[in-house]
Amino acid sequence: MSSNPFLISAEQLADEIGRPGLSIVDASWYLPAQKRFGHPEFLAGHIPGAVFFDQDAVVDRTSDLPHTLPSAETFAAAAGALGISHSDTIVVYDGMGLFSAPRVWWMFRTFGARDVRILDGGYPAWISGSRPVETGEPEVKPARFEAHLDAAAVASLEEMRAIVKDGSRQIADARPAGRFSADVPEPRPGVRGGHMPGARSLPASDLAADGRLKSPDALQRLFEEAGIDTDAPIVTSCGSGVTAATINFALASLHKSDVKLYDGSWTEWGSRPDTPAEGGPAGKLPLNRSSRDAR
Fold first, then answer.
1. Which residues contact 151 (CB under 8 A, 6 or more apart)?
2. pLDDT at 295 over 60
3. How do residues 150-163 score in pLDDT, each as one tens digit?
4. In whole angstroms, what is the distance from residue 160 CA to residue 158 CA?
Protein backbone atom coordinates (compact mmCIF):
# COMPACT_ATOMS: atom_id res chain seq x y z
CA MET A 1 0.00 0.00 0.00
CA SER A 2 1.40 3.42 -0.99
CA SER A 3 1.95 6.05 1.69
CA ASN A 4 1.30 8.70 -0.97
CA PRO A 5 -2.23 10.09 -0.35
CA PHE A 6 -2.52 10.99 -4.04
CA LEU A 7 -1.93 7.44 -5.28
CA ILE A 8 -4.11 4.36 -5.17
CA SER A 9 -2.98 0.86 -6.08
CA ALA A 10 -4.77 -1.41 -8.53
CA GLU A 11 -5.48 -3.77 -5.64
CA GLN A 12 -7.08 -1.00 -3.60
CA LEU A 13 -9.14 0.22 -6.53
CA ALA A 14 -10.38 -3.29 -7.29
CA ASP A 15 -11.73 -3.47 -3.75
CA GLU A 16 -13.49 -0.10 -4.14
CA ILE A 17 -15.17 -0.54 -7.54
CA GLY A 18 -18.91 -0.12 -7.32
CA ARG A 19 -18.79 1.93 -4.13
CA PRO A 20 -21.10 4.97 -4.21
CA GLY A 21 -19.12 8.19 -4.46
CA LEU A 22 -16.25 6.67 -6.46
CA SER A 23 -15.59 8.04 -9.94
CA ILE A 24 -12.97 6.48 -12.21
CA VAL A 25 -11.61 8.61 -15.04
CA ASP A 26 -9.60 7.50 -18.06
CA ALA A 27 -7.44 10.52 -18.90
CA SER A 28 -5.41 8.91 -21.69
CA TRP A 29 -3.96 11.42 -24.14
CA TYR A 30 -1.05 10.97 -26.50
CA LEU A 31 1.35 13.00 -28.60
CA PRO A 32 0.99 12.56 -32.38
CA ALA A 33 4.37 10.83 -32.57
CA GLN A 34 3.13 8.14 -30.17
CA LYS A 35 0.50 7.07 -32.73
CA ARG A 36 -1.97 6.09 -30.04
CA PHE A 37 -5.46 7.46 -29.56
CA GLY A 38 -7.13 7.75 -26.18
CA HIS A 39 -10.83 7.39 -26.94
CA PRO A 40 -10.58 4.40 -29.32
CA GLU A 41 -8.39 2.62 -26.76
CA PHE A 42 -10.96 3.42 -24.07
CA LEU A 43 -13.74 1.89 -26.17
CA ALA A 44 -11.62 -1.22 -26.72
CA GLY A 45 -11.07 -1.70 -23.01
CA HIS A 46 -11.25 0.27 -19.77
CA ILE A 47 -11.58 -0.20 -16.03
CA PRO A 48 -15.18 -1.11 -15.11
CA GLY A 49 -17.22 1.99 -14.41
CA ALA A 50 -14.66 4.38 -15.89
CA VAL A 51 -15.58 7.38 -18.04
CA PHE A 52 -13.37 9.02 -20.67
CA PHE A 53 -12.12 12.57 -20.09
CA ASP A 54 -11.21 14.19 -23.41
CA GLN A 55 -8.35 16.60 -22.76
CA ASP A 56 -8.71 18.10 -26.23
CA ALA A 57 -12.40 18.88 -25.67
CA VAL A 58 -12.61 20.19 -22.08
CA VAL A 59 -10.80 23.41 -22.89
CA ASP A 60 -11.33 27.12 -23.43
CA ARG A 61 -12.54 27.07 -27.01
CA THR A 62 -12.02 30.81 -27.39
CA SER A 63 -8.25 30.30 -27.04
CA ASP A 64 -5.92 29.53 -29.95
CA LEU A 65 -3.71 27.54 -27.56
CA PRO A 66 -4.11 23.81 -26.94
CA HIS A 67 -5.40 22.59 -23.57
CA THR A 68 -6.16 26.04 -22.15
CA LEU A 69 -8.16 25.70 -18.94
CA PRO A 70 -11.88 26.19 -19.49
CA SER A 71 -14.06 28.36 -17.32
CA ALA A 72 -15.40 26.92 -14.08
CA GLU A 73 -18.85 26.72 -15.68
CA THR A 74 -17.53 24.76 -18.67
CA PHE A 75 -15.58 22.38 -16.47
CA ALA A 76 -18.55 21.84 -14.16
CA ALA A 77 -20.78 20.98 -17.10
CA ALA A 78 -18.23 18.54 -18.54
CA ALA A 79 -17.55 16.81 -15.23
CA GLY A 80 -21.23 16.63 -14.35
CA ALA A 81 -22.08 15.14 -17.74
CA LEU A 82 -19.54 12.39 -16.96
CA GLY A 83 -21.37 11.64 -13.71
CA ILE A 84 -18.65 13.13 -11.51
CA SER A 85 -19.36 15.18 -8.38
CA HIS A 86 -16.88 17.48 -6.64
CA SER A 87 -17.37 15.45 -3.47
CA ASP A 88 -16.51 12.10 -5.07
CA THR A 89 -13.31 10.17 -4.62
CA ILE A 90 -11.95 10.61 -8.14
CA VAL A 91 -9.38 8.12 -9.45
CA VAL A 92 -7.60 9.14 -12.65
CA TYR A 93 -5.49 6.87 -14.85
CA ASP A 94 -3.94 6.77 -18.31
CA GLY A 95 -2.77 4.18 -20.80
CA MET A 96 0.95 4.72 -20.29
CA GLY A 97 1.02 4.48 -16.51
CA LEU A 98 1.95 8.07 -15.65
CA PHE A 99 1.82 10.45 -18.58
CA SER A 100 -1.40 12.39 -19.08
CA ALA A 101 -3.28 11.48 -15.89
CA PRO A 102 -1.53 14.15 -13.77
CA ARG A 103 -2.99 16.92 -15.93
CA VAL A 104 -6.56 15.78 -15.25
CA TRP A 105 -5.68 15.15 -11.58
CA TRP A 106 -4.47 18.77 -11.46
CA MET A 107 -7.55 20.09 -13.29
CA PHE A 108 -10.00 18.44 -10.90
CA ARG A 109 -8.09 19.76 -7.91
CA THR A 110 -7.79 23.23 -9.44
CA PHE A 111 -11.56 23.32 -9.88
CA GLY A 112 -12.26 22.28 -6.30
CA ALA A 113 -12.50 18.49 -6.13
CA ARG A 114 -11.62 17.34 -2.61
CA ASP A 115 -10.24 13.83 -3.11
CA VAL A 116 -8.40 13.14 -6.37
CA ARG A 117 -5.95 10.28 -6.81
CA ILE A 118 -3.93 8.69 -9.59
CA LEU A 119 -3.92 4.95 -10.19
CA ASP A 120 -0.38 3.78 -9.46
CA GLY A 121 0.90 2.27 -12.69
CA GLY A 122 -2.20 3.31 -14.63
CA TYR A 123 -4.08 1.00 -16.97
CA PRO A 124 -1.03 -1.24 -17.54
CA ALA A 125 -0.99 -2.02 -13.81
CA TRP A 126 -4.71 -2.78 -13.90
CA ILE A 127 -4.59 -5.26 -16.77
CA SER A 128 -1.34 -6.87 -15.58
CA GLY A 129 -3.34 -8.50 -12.79
CA SER A 130 -5.87 -10.02 -15.19
CA ARG A 131 -8.55 -7.79 -13.71
CA PRO A 132 -11.89 -7.29 -15.46
CA VAL A 133 -12.32 -4.68 -18.17
CA GLU A 134 -15.31 -3.19 -19.95
CA THR A 135 -15.70 -2.13 -23.57
CA GLY A 136 -17.77 0.48 -25.36
CA GLU A 137 -19.33 3.65 -24.06
CA PRO A 138 -20.54 3.46 -20.44
CA GLU A 139 -23.99 4.44 -19.30
CA VAL A 140 -23.60 7.61 -17.25
CA LYS A 141 -25.93 9.17 -14.73
CA PRO A 142 -25.30 12.94 -14.75
CA ALA A 143 -24.15 14.53 -11.51
CA ARG A 144 -23.64 18.01 -10.11
CA PHE A 145 -20.07 19.29 -9.96
CA GLU A 146 -19.59 22.59 -8.15
CA ALA A 147 -16.51 24.09 -9.77
CA HIS A 148 -14.51 26.96 -8.30
CA LEU A 149 -11.26 27.89 -9.99
CA ASP A 150 -8.23 28.15 -7.71
CA ALA A 151 -6.60 31.02 -9.58
CA ALA A 152 -3.50 30.75 -7.41
CA ALA A 153 -2.71 27.39 -9.01
CA VAL A 154 -2.38 28.87 -12.51
CA ALA A 155 0.21 31.25 -13.98
CA SER A 156 -0.68 33.54 -16.87
CA LEU A 157 1.56 34.90 -19.63
CA GLU A 158 1.89 38.25 -17.87
CA GLU A 159 2.78 36.57 -14.60
CA MET A 160 5.41 34.50 -16.41
CA ARG A 161 6.91 37.66 -17.88
CA ALA A 162 7.30 39.00 -14.36
CA ILE A 163 8.74 35.71 -13.06
CA VAL A 164 11.34 35.61 -15.82
CA LYS A 165 12.26 39.22 -15.10
CA ASP A 166 12.45 39.11 -11.30
CA GLY A 167 13.11 35.44 -10.56
CA SER A 168 10.33 35.33 -7.96
CA ARG A 169 9.66 31.68 -8.82
CA GLN A 170 11.79 28.87 -10.12
CA ILE A 171 10.68 27.59 -13.52
CA ALA A 172 10.65 23.80 -13.94
CA ASP A 173 10.32 22.72 -17.58
CA ALA A 174 8.93 19.22 -18.15
CA ARG A 175 9.72 18.92 -21.87
CA PRO A 176 12.40 16.49 -23.08
CA ALA A 177 15.93 17.85 -22.67
CA GLY A 178 16.48 18.14 -26.42
CA ARG A 179 13.56 20.49 -26.85
CA PHE A 180 14.60 22.48 -23.79
CA SER A 181 18.09 23.01 -25.26
CA ALA A 182 16.72 23.63 -28.80
CA ASP A 183 18.71 20.68 -30.14
CA VAL A 184 15.40 19.05 -31.10
CA PRO A 185 12.76 21.14 -32.90
CA GLU A 186 9.38 21.77 -31.36
CA PRO A 187 6.60 19.58 -32.78
CA ARG A 188 4.19 22.49 -33.30
CA PRO A 189 4.66 24.75 -36.35
CA GLY A 190 5.66 28.32 -35.54
CA VAL A 191 7.05 27.52 -32.10
CA ARG A 192 10.78 28.09 -31.71
CA GLY A 193 13.02 25.90 -29.59
CA GLY A 194 14.75 26.70 -26.32
CA HIS A 195 13.49 27.72 -22.91
CA MET A 196 12.57 30.67 -20.75
CA PRO A 197 15.55 32.48 -19.23
CA GLY A 198 16.38 30.98 -15.85
CA ALA A 199 14.30 27.83 -16.40
CA ARG A 200 15.55 24.42 -15.29
CA SER A 201 15.06 21.21 -17.22
CA LEU A 202 13.25 18.39 -15.44
CA PRO A 203 11.71 16.07 -18.05
CA ALA A 204 8.45 14.56 -16.87
CA SER A 205 9.63 11.15 -18.04
CA ASP A 206 12.45 11.24 -15.47
CA LEU A 207 9.94 11.32 -12.62
CA ALA A 208 8.53 7.88 -13.35
CA ALA A 209 9.87 4.36 -13.80
CA ASP A 210 7.79 1.65 -15.47
CA GLY A 211 4.78 3.95 -15.43
CA ARG A 212 4.95 4.62 -11.70
CA LEU A 213 6.01 7.72 -9.78
CA LYS A 214 9.48 7.31 -8.32
CA SER A 215 10.11 7.21 -4.58
CA PRO A 216 10.19 10.44 -2.55
CA ASP A 217 13.97 10.15 -2.09
CA ALA A 218 14.50 9.64 -5.82
CA LEU A 219 12.21 12.57 -6.65
CA GLN A 220 14.03 14.84 -4.21
CA ARG A 221 17.37 13.93 -5.82
CA LEU A 222 16.02 14.71 -9.27
CA PHE A 223 14.88 18.17 -8.18
CA GLU A 224 18.24 18.83 -6.56
CA GLU A 225 20.14 17.65 -9.64
CA ALA A 226 18.01 19.98 -11.77
CA GLY A 227 18.93 22.90 -9.50
CA ILE A 228 15.41 23.29 -8.12
CA ASP A 229 14.83 24.06 -4.44
CA THR A 230 11.58 22.31 -3.51
CA ASP A 231 11.16 24.56 -0.48
CA ALA A 232 10.98 27.69 -2.65
CA PRO A 233 8.13 28.82 -4.97
CA ILE A 234 7.95 26.94 -8.28
CA VAL A 235 6.03 27.27 -11.53
CA THR A 236 5.91 24.39 -13.99
CA SER A 237 5.78 24.45 -17.77
CA CYS A 238 5.96 22.06 -20.73
CA GLY A 239 4.81 22.08 -24.34
CA SER A 240 1.10 22.69 -23.86
CA GLY A 241 0.41 22.32 -20.13
CA VAL A 242 -0.13 18.55 -19.98
CA THR A 243 3.14 16.96 -18.81
CA ALA A 244 3.99 19.98 -16.62
CA ALA A 245 1.35 18.60 -14.25
CA THR A 246 3.57 15.57 -13.64
CA ILE A 247 5.98 17.90 -11.85
CA ASN A 248 3.07 19.37 -9.88
CA PHE A 249 2.03 15.84 -8.94
CA ALA A 250 5.57 14.94 -7.85
CA LEU A 251 5.81 18.09 -5.73
CA ALA A 252 2.43 17.43 -4.10
CA SER A 253 3.69 13.93 -3.31
CA LEU A 254 6.65 15.61 -1.57
CA HIS A 255 4.15 17.75 0.40
CA LYS A 256 5.09 20.95 -1.43
CA SER A 257 2.23 23.35 -2.03
CA ASP A 258 3.65 26.66 -3.35
CA VAL A 259 3.44 25.53 -6.96
CA LYS A 260 1.75 26.97 -10.03
CA LEU A 261 1.34 25.64 -13.57
CA TYR A 262 1.87 27.88 -16.59
CA ASP A 263 -1.16 26.88 -18.62
CA GLY A 264 -0.01 28.40 -21.92
CA SER A 265 3.41 26.79 -21.47
CA TRP A 266 6.00 26.80 -24.25
CA THR A 267 3.43 26.81 -27.06
CA GLU A 268 2.38 30.28 -25.94
CA TRP A 269 5.81 31.56 -24.88
CA GLY A 270 7.76 30.12 -27.79
CA SER A 271 5.35 31.31 -30.48
CA ARG A 272 5.52 34.99 -29.53
CA PRO A 273 8.08 37.44 -30.98
CA ASP A 274 8.20 39.50 -27.76
CA THR A 275 9.25 36.82 -25.24
CA PRO A 276 12.92 36.14 -24.39
CA ALA A 277 14.30 32.65 -24.92
CA GLU A 278 17.56 30.78 -24.52
CA GLY A 279 19.05 27.68 -26.09
CA GLY A 280 21.38 25.18 -24.47
CA PRO A 281 21.34 23.86 -20.90
CA ALA A 282 19.92 26.15 -18.22
CA GLY A 283 22.43 28.71 -17.05
CA LYS A 284 24.81 28.27 -20.00
CA LEU A 285 23.68 31.38 -21.82
CA PRO A 286 23.29 34.89 -20.35
CA LEU A 287 19.86 35.87 -19.16
CA ASN A 288 17.61 38.41 -20.86
CA ARG A 289 18.69 37.51 -24.37
CA SER A 290 16.14 38.57 -26.96
CA SER A 291 14.03 35.94 -28.63
CA ARG A 292 15.68 36.78 -31.96
CA ASP A 293 19.16 36.16 -30.55
CA ALA A 294 18.10 32.87 -29.04
CA ARG A 295 16.61 31.31 -32.16
1. none
2. no
3. 999 999 999 999 99
4. 5
In CATH terms, is domain 152-269 a member of 3.40.250.10?
A: yes
Q: 0.85 exceeded by the pTM?
A: yes
The CATH topology of domain 7-149 is: Oxidized Rhodanese; domain 1 (3.40.250)
Strands (E) located in the chain: 7-8, 22-26, 51-52, 89-93, 115-119, 154-155, 170-173, 200-201, 208-209, 212-213, 234-237, 259-262
Catalytic, 4? Answer: no
Residue spans of the domains in the chain: they are 7-149, 152-269
Give the model's confidence band at 287: pLDDT under 50 very low, under 70 low, under 90 confident, else very high: very low
Which one from 51, 238, 245, 294 is the annotated catalytic residue? 238
